[in-house]
Amino acid sequence: VPYMQRGGSWDNSDLKGKKGWMKTGFGMTAYNDGKAEQKRELASDKKYNNIKPDIGFFGEALNWGGGAKGDDLAARAKRNGLTNDQQMWRDSGALSQQEIKRMNSGRRMMGAAPKITPGGQKAPEKKFFGLF
Fold first, then answer.
1. What is the pLDDT of residues 89-118, one digit of tens each?
2. Which residues does 64 contact at the CB level (< 8 Å), separation at least 6?
């Protein structure tokens, strides 16, 4: 069973010295015949594994790990008196509840418009499902 399907190690170190039916990391049962060879890491593997992503657009590298170097989300959230989740929303540009309230304060809410009846007649009194 390939290592990604069994939830094991790419170098087969999880199979070495074991034989028989085994539970995989995903709950699947698979048979290990005990003949798995432990793979060794090549120089090209080491080189690839040590590369830190430094991908950028227009000459400037982006930090794909989130935040600037040395920036701590939890510290900023604590400093601002917010939870980590609220701080992430703020960082993404989402509006706070106060900002939404302030934005809507000048608008009329649904149902606040005056009722206009044709001919200046008074609207008939509403009854309970037309029964009373």
1. 888 888 877 888 888 776 656 666 666 666
2. 53, 55
